[in-house]
Every structure is written in C-alpha cells, then in structure tokens.
Specification:
Chain lengths: ~325, ~500
C-alpha cells in the first residue's frame, strides 16, 4: 500500500483535515482503490487501522500541527492505551552502560505507577526503556519508522513480540513500507506527540533523540534530560538540552511530579551488616569488584557472595564489571 | 615379522628372484598401523619402483634410498627392484619409511642378515649422504612396534629418547652404514643420551599479578574445577597475563596423562628431542589468525591441532572474537566430548582434546568500553557484528566469566601478591574433595538458585553452570555440602548478556 492508498484510506475514513486532494490522479486512484478490501486484509493479518477522525485517536497526537492521517496498530492492547498518560524515553543507539541502566530503571519505575512508556524500538536506550517497562509488567508503545509488519531492527524481533503481547506497536506507515532514513525523524514526531513529557537519556550532539525533543518543545510538551558526564561526547546532546533549560531528571520521581503521581518507594530492604557496608561503598561511587575488595577489606570470594545478594535484592546492578547502586 | 628368500627354482643359491620383508608403522591419526615393506629383486632391466599407495614424500624415497645406499659404500643391486608397502589400501605418508625400505632392499640383496632385521622395527628418513634423520611420531611408532611384539627399533639418535618411552629398546643409528654394521653384528652403537635431567623452566608465576582479586579467585576456581574461563575487559588490564598463569596452579600431570600428551605431541612433531618426557601440563596459545584445521586438527593426513596439543593442559585463545567464527564453532565438539573426530574418506581419526579453555576479549572492537580513560567510539552496528562472532552456544561453554574493569593506579602500587605455590596446594586439595564425597546442595542453596533463575537472565544451561561452579567453590572451602554462599559466589561469575548478540 503506497502513500496514495494511504491518503485514500484516510479519505474513506474521513480523516482529512482540509478535504481530500482534488487531483485527477487521486480521483482515478480512489476509483480503483477498495478501502473495505484493504481493511479486511489488515484484519486478516491481525493489524488495525485507527483513523484520525476516529474518536479513539489519541487527543495529544491529534493536537500536533501535522498529525498522521491515521495509525496502523499491532498488538493486543486496546486503542485506549494510546490516550493514557504517557512518557517518551529516547536516546542514543550506541549508548553507555550508564545510559542503558538509567533508561531501564526509569522505564521500570514509570511503568510501575501506571504511565505508558513510549519509545522507538531502536537499539540502545529505546530498547532498554521498553524492557524496563516490560519488567514492571507495564504496557509500552513502540512507534516504528517502517511498516507495522516489519521488525526493525531485526535483532529486536523478540522484543517487538513482547511489546505486542501487552502493549502496541504503532506506525503511520502501511504494512510493507521499508525503513528509510527520512522516515525516522517523522516517526519521532509521533513519539513526542503521543506524550506529555519526553525524557532524553543520552544523546550525542547530532542525535535523533534531539529531534524528538525539538518536536516536544514545539508542541509545548515537557522535556527532561538525564545529566551525563560533561567529558563524554555521548552526553553532549542531553547536557546541551539542560543548558537550554530542560528539566534535569535525577530520579523517576521528577517525571511523576509533573503528573501529580507518587512513585512506589521501594521500602528499605533488610540486608546483612556486611552487605550494608558494601552497599554504602557502591552508593558512594560505582566501582569494580577489585576496588571494592580494597575498600571493604573482604576477600574476592566473600565480596562475590555479598554482591550477588545485593543484586538479587535489586539494590545493585552490574554491567561490564562495574557495580552501581540501583536507581 | 618374517623375512623370506624364495627363488624361482627353489634353490637358495639363485638370486634371480629374491623377496625380503621388514616391518614399520604408519600413523593414522594417533593410531600406529602395521606396514610391511616388501622388497623384491629379480633379473631384468635395472629399475626401482615403489608401490602401495605412497604419497609424494614417500614415493620420493626411492631417490633418497638409492643415494643413501651408495653413500654408505654398499652395493645397489643393478636389477629390477620393486618395493611394496602393504597393506596397499592404507595411504602412506611422509619420509619415515626410508630406513625400512633401504634395509629391505639390502636384505633382499643379501647384504644384511635377514633374521636380525626381523627382530627390529625401523623408522627414519635418509639423507642423500646416508645419514638417518628423525621423523615425527617416533613415540607412536615405537608403541606400535611394542604391540607387534618387537623389542628393538632402529631410529635416528634424536628420536631415541622418544622411542624408548614407547616401551622398546631404541638403537640409535646416525648413518645407514651404522645400521648395517649393527645388523651384521659388527658394531654396537652407543646408547642414546639419557633425557635431559634439568627440570623444565617454571611457568610464569601468579606473584607477578598485582590486584585483580576477582580474576585471581576465578582462576583458582577454574583450576580446581576444570572450568573454562572467559576474561573480558579493556586492554591492558592483565587478562592475557592471568590466562598464562593458569598452568602454574594446576596439579602436575599423572603418568597416564603424560603418555597421552606425549603421543599427541610426538605425532605432531613438537616433542623437544632432548627432553621428550613431558611432566608439565601443555600450554598452547594459537594466534587468532589460525585456521579451523590448525585449531582442531585436520589436513589430508589428519594431524592434531592446537586443541589436541593442549590435551590435559590449557588452551588460551587471546582476543576470542578475532578468531574466525568457523574455528570457534569447531571447538564446541571437543569442549563437549573431549575429543576431535576428523572424518576422511578412509576413515576417522580421533584426537583426544580434553583441555581447559581460557579466553580473553575486549568489550567492543575499539576496546574503549569499560575503560574510564577512553571512550567507546563503536557504532551500534559494529558492536553488534563484534558480538555476533560469539554465539550463545559458545559462550555457554564458559562456566566462569569475569569482566575485568581497568584497575586504578592505587592497585598497581598494592603490595606483592600471593605466589602460585600456595594456590596450587589449595587447588589440589579442592580437586581431591571434588573427586571424593558427593557434594549436594542444601535446601537453602537450591532455593537461592531458583530465585536467581527468576530474577536474573539465566538460561537452563546457565543454571547448570552455576551449580557446577558452586560445587567447586564448596570443595575449595572444604565444606560438606554446597551452601547458599557458594551458589551466590558462583552467580557472580555467570556470563552477562552484554557479551553476546
């Protein structure tokens, strides 16, 4: 189904804002095009089409200056999901261990209090945000820059399946449309458009995540950025947003306050005395196991036992050999 | 072994047609196969032919044998000479048949007593001036001779020590003339120099490694439990240095194991001639450009690869993702079965390959990851391609995975570290305990393991690996059962998700 078909599709569902095109080419096409048959075909594939004229069309997305004529949907969740309070979590594809961990943690906490996590199913931050939400058994929405039937990137086929199981995959492109570089910025306007707030976790100077942030700002939505190391080029874009006045995100609560929601404070978990001492060290500064043996005076074996306990209790995360306190 | 003289008319005086036979062994994989070398001399146009599926090196023996006999001041029979290597269906490779062929020709022309030749096996290559050169596999050939009921083997002096270890008396002969003189009973060659008594140089010691407590602990667990170990981290954190020190904390080879190792090394031709008796565990570290055949063995006449040369020892694969993917995948079979089966049209060669694998890798292609002083500049595609090299199936073979972040300057300045000797003692007593009483998990340990499977990304196979390492930790600690703390420690060395695609 090409762009013309989509326009016709939208016309059939009365989705045009200014009336349908008057060109002879469009008229000819419309005569040929059978919207009913297309809908039936979509249905057979298990997909849905949500026209802009539909009352269920997410109001926030309808409010942006160039909303899509309609959205193709894949997944179990009800269309109503798109109208629920949502937060976009976006960032670099090539991200650091820190970025991955923050994206996941924030995704998990926001989903836990009932916010819908929206992202783009890309590698890196996007995927971690989806995963975090799934960990909290919260619904999550992935906006694609290609046809709804395509799993792009292919490495995220399994993730897409998981998202579809409880949430939605959405796209303004009809099934079969290939991913193309210029479709991703267009996709970003939908990511920003669906949400009242956009969180940029990690972004380089020229990152696509900044495009999403720009769309959000243009529409007057809230933009938050996660502070990164000032020496890291991976955080240059997100730190730049902070300089321009974006709200710094230092904990998930910062987002929730905007919605008037209260986070589920993880009650103090009872850990042993040694474990508490190790946790204190990790909270003071993330460190490798060897540094911790030195600061705590434990043997490598004893320390491994304690760190595993803390990890199982969800108080500490390990990535690439470095232990960090869980956010 | 029999040496026959037959003549056309049955009279012993005629030399019209003479047949002599000697015995040697060809190697199929590690297996010595009996080969009879028959030399047949009859009147006719002078000529020399070798038949019996000889490869190029073996067929060229006729030039070496002819000039060797000439150089030894012996007579080359100017008759029609045919040498047959039986069984004809077995492919003969290499130059080790030279000596046997020369002796069979000499016996057929009655220049040496045939009965005495019958009591000896022979192996060696001939130089054009008649000197005897060593060939690979003397140990295995000597073992074959012993199995065939022979007590003595004629070989080059360099191979003598090796052949003696095979359980037969080695007669070191420097020159073909010496072999002939010996067989005629005119000369008794001096026995081969006894093997070098000097002990092998010690492998590098753990005392050289500063800091790295976690990796050292993992190395100790790996040594005690025979686990495969993967060390990941940015360059310059001492991953390779640690891997090289694993042999220093392993218990010495048992005599039975040493024989297995020697057989493989002899066939590969890597036994040092002056010190063929192996007492230390082998350590092999092939370069990452090595081909699949070089790693697991192969070739037209299959030869053992690095995996087999590391049998009963350590195979270090430095920069694991730089190896060719097929070579890595080929390692999965020996890692599982402890043996490499190289199939050829003529049959299968089995090479034992029960080694301990130690591998190192960077966290990304630019090696910037995990290093606070550098920044990773890899694109996500490049990183994905890097991780694609390592299949889950291969990573699953590593019981212990340690990510080594860059140590800070303070650690390098830390005091002297524990040397290898006390670690080796702990490893040895741990191994004894592992072999003895059955270490079972307590109910609490089981509960912890199940909780971990739910909470952490851990596959079914991962669970088995953790259980295995926990057992080793319990044995090292001298506990009667596997307690929760042992499971908890084992969990710290599970393979993280970020290493594979």
């Amino acid at each position: 189904m090409n762009e013309l078909a989509l326009a016709s599709f939208a016309a059939a569902s009365d989705a045009h804002l200014v009336g349908e095109p008057r060109s002879a080419r469009f008229a000819a096409f419309k005569r040929r095009f059978d919207a009913g048959a297309e809908l039936a075909r979509l249905d057979a594939l298990g997909f849905r089409f949500l026209a802009r004229s539909d009352p269920g069309f997410p109001p926030l997305l309808r409010a942006i200056h160039d909303p899509p004529p309609g959205l193709f949907l894949r997944g179990r969740a009800d269309v109503e999901l798109l109208a629920r309070p949502a937060v976009a979590i976006v960032g670099a594809r090539a991200c650091s261990a820190y970025g991955r961990q923050v994206a996941r943690g924030v995704g998990r906490e926001l989903a836990a209090v009932g916010l819908v996590v929206v992202s783009g199913l890309a590698r890196g931050i996007d995927a971690e945000a989806h995963r975090g939400a799934l960990e909290a058994s919260g619904p999550t929405v992935a906006v694609l820059g290609c046809g709804i039937d395509r799993d792009y990137p292919a490495a995220h086929r399994e993730l897409a399946k998981q998202v579809a199981a409880t949430g939605l995959l959405v796209s303004e492109y009809a099934p079969g449309v290939e991913p193309a570089p210029w479709r991703f910025p267009a996709r970003n306007r939908i990511v920003a458009g669906l949400c009242a707030a956009t969180v940029v976790v990690e972004a380089r100077e020229q990152s696509g995540a900044l495009i999403t942030a720009d769309f959000a700002l243009e529409e007057g939505r809230e933009v938050l950025a996660v502070p990164g190391e000032i020496t890291s080029s991976l955080s240059a874009g997100s730190n730049g947003l902070l300089r321009l006045g974006a709200t710094p995100l230092t904990r998930a609560q910062d987002v929730l306050e905007g919605y008037g929601l209260v986070g589920s404070s993880a009650g103090a978990v009872d850990v042993g005395k040694t474990a508490a001492a190790v946790l204190e060290q990790v909270r003071a500064a993330s460190a490798g196991a060897d540094e911790l043996t030195r600061t705590t005076g434990l043997s490598a074996g004893e320390l491994a036992v304690v760190l595993t306990e803390l990890e199982l209790a969800g108080l500490v995360n390990e990535e690439e050999g470095v232990y960090r306190a869980a956010s | 072994m029999t040496v026959l003289f037959t003549t056309r008319d049955g009279s012993a005086s005629s030399v019209d047609r003479v047949l002599a036979r000697s015995v040697t062994h060809a190697l199929v994989g590690l297996e010595p196969r009996r080969v009879e070398v028959e030399a047949h001399i009859e009147s006719g146009i002078p000529g020399f032919a070798i038949v019996g599926l000889a490869d190029r090196a073996c067929a060229e023996a006729k030039h070496r044998v002819r000039s060797g006999i000439g150089s030894a001041q012996l007579e080359w029979p100017l008759k029609r000479i045919t040498v047959n290597l039986a069984p004809a269906g077995l492919r003969k490779e290499g130059s080790g048949f030279d000596l046997s062929i020369a002796l069979a020709v000499l016996a057929a022309s009655r220049q040496i007593p045939t009965e005495r030749l019958g009591e000896h096996a022979a192996v060696g290559e001939l130089a054009l001036d008649g000197r005897v050169r060593p060939v690979r596999g003397a140990f295995a050939v000597a073992e074959g001779a012993k199995r065939a009921g022979l007590e003595r083997i004629l070989c080059a002096p360099e191979s003598a020590c090796e052949a003696e270890l095979g359980g037969v008396e080695a007669i070191p002969v420097r020159h073909l003339a010496e072999a002939v003189a010996y067989l005629r009973g005119e000369l008794r060659p001096p026995p081969a120099d006894p093997p070098d008594e000097e002990p092998e140089p010690d492998p590098p010691d753990l005392a050289d490694v500063r800091g790295q407590e976690r990796a050292r602990r993992a190395l100790e667990l790996a040594a005690a439990g025979g686990h495969n170990l993967l060390l990941a981290g940015p360059p310059g954190t001492g991953k390779t240095m640690l891997g090289r020190r694993l042999p220093s904390i392993l218990p010495p080879l048992e005599p039975r194991e040493a024989l297995e190792v020697m057989r493989i090394h002899s066939v590969a031709g890597v036994l040092p001639p002056e010190r063929p008796l192996i007492t230390r565990r082998p350590f092999r570290a092939p370069h990452h450009s090595a081909s699949t055949a070089a790693i697991v063995g192969g070739g037209a006449g299959p030869r053992p690869g690095e995996a087999s040369l590391a049998h009963r020892g350590v195979l270090l694969l430095d920069e694991l993702p730089e190896f060719q993917r097929p070579a890595l995948e080929a390692l999965r079979q020996p890692l599982e079965d402890g043996v490499v089966a190289v199939a050829r049209v003529q049959g299968q060669a089995l090479f034992p390959a029960r080694f301990q694998l130690v591998a190192t890798m960077n966290l990304c292609p630019c090696a910037g990851r995990g290093d606070p002083a550098a920044e990773c500049s890899c694109s996500s595609q490049r990183l994905a391609a890097f991780r694609d090299k390592l299949s889950r199936a291969l990573l699953d073979r590593f019981d212990l995975v340690v990510t080594v972040p860059r140590s800070r300057a303070v650690e390098l300045a830390a005091g002297p570290a524990e040397p290898s000797a006390p670690v080796r003692e702990r490893v040895e007593s741990g191994r004894i305990r592992l072999g003895g009483a059955k270490l079972r998990r307590t109910a609490e340990a089981d509960e912890l393991l199940s909780r971990a499977v739910e909470r952490l990304p851990l596959s079914g196979r991962g669970r088995t690996r953790v259980a295995r390492v926990a057992r080793t930790a319990a044995a090292l600690a001298g506990a009667d059962a596997v307690l929760p703390e042992h499971v908890a420690e084992a969990l710290a060395y599970r393979s993280p998700n970020e290493l594979a695609a």
